[in-house]
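Notes from hallway chat w/ T.B., transcribed later so I don't forget. T.B. wanted the structure written out for a chain they're using in a teaching module, and asked if we could keep both sequence and structure tokens in one place. Agreed to drop them here.
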Amino acid sequence: MLGGVDHAAAFLQSQANDAPNSLLVGAGPMLFMDPNLEPASSTQHVFKAQALAESLRDMGLVAWAPGVNDWASGLPKLRELRDKSGATLLAANLSKPAGFSQPIRVVEVAGLKVGLSGLVQLEGLPETEQEDPIASLKLAKTRLDEQGARIRVALLAMPRGAALRALESVPGFQLAIVGKAKDAGEANDGPIPPVLVNDTLVVQAPNHLQAIGVVDFFVRDDSYTFKDGSGIAQAERRASLERRVSDLKRRLAEWERQGSGVQASDLAARRRDLQKLEAELAGLAQAPVPEKGSFFRYKLQEVREKLGTSERVKTRLESYYKRVNEHNKEAFKDRRPEPVAANQSGFIGVEACTACHGEERTFWNSTRHAKAYSTLAVAHKQFNLECVGCHVTGYEKPGGSTVTHVGELTGVQCEVCHGPGSRHVAAPQSPELIVAKPGKSLCAPECHHPPHVKPDWNVDQAWKGILGPGHGE
């Protein structure tokens, strides 16, 4: 899966030797997935924000321009989280609350002064007041110049269009990092190609820490006007080719697994297509270094498990999961499923199904669905509100399960796909009381959707893993 603060931290550690003079900064929501917290889950989200803030300190976060989501637990809590992160909140246009953020910050890196400033768009937050963003950014740029900043970086937590207009009006920043004003839900953004606005490189990493944007500045002859060493003009073409290569590789792998039914000539033609796309992509992969003057390079580094794991951050996350488990086990101990309405079916569990469906049960025992709950328990996540719903049967449904009241409904059992079975057991001769053959569309909307699946997950391929003797085979 994409993302993971422990993997991001490992990547930064791995770059320490190649890039010893570096800064980590951000723009947009950093601590909460949604701008508003549901009362029942607010404590868990605050625990998570604390773990994130402390992990960001470990990663060396210097500053960020906050988004609306960062206020989700209120101003006092955000002050606390800011302090835990060790970073400065930058918002040149935020006039209230006073003293909460700074308009600028100058950081010295290897003898070079790097100036940072930020803009925010926090509409709807009653405890904030904001000034005109363009006028505020102009004043911040002047102050950075007065303090001797040679490289100037703008952190813009605002809609992309507004951010680009601000940069057009205020030249002089070599780099701008754009982040959302606010975000909501689990949906993952796709990659956004970098652009140049006058001489300002504008980059935007996708949400949920799917990737980290990496900008390298190479200074020559004490010049701080940087030419393009990455081929930004070709960035959109490169992104398009990468998507097509990835899609074609996935399709080829699927066809090869299928074996029969796919013409050899078709496979050969698609492999030739892949070779052509890869050759074109290789030609765009690295732009030539400008012969004279300073230049920049940019890449978007996907955050995945293959980057490794920071043991310090991993340990902190494990503590967070245990803390949530202990809290939720007590907080939700009295939360029970709603009763089953008259003339409706309730959940009975896989043991009741086994009496008539022994062959299916034997096969189910061999699937990953049977072990879904135990994987949570081992990781101290079985009471985690973000996890449990897809690892039990009948979650939050009448006669089903809740966070702590699971009983015999652990794992992804028969009734997740075939529906609650109490009336079916009572009258097995009535086929309308059970879903004999569920559709494939059931999986993706319920549980198997980003960010909970790998990018190449495919329902047709996954479906084969749940077919077996007596169970659709």
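Follow-up for T.B.: The first strand starts at residue 24 and ends at 27. Might be a good example for the class.
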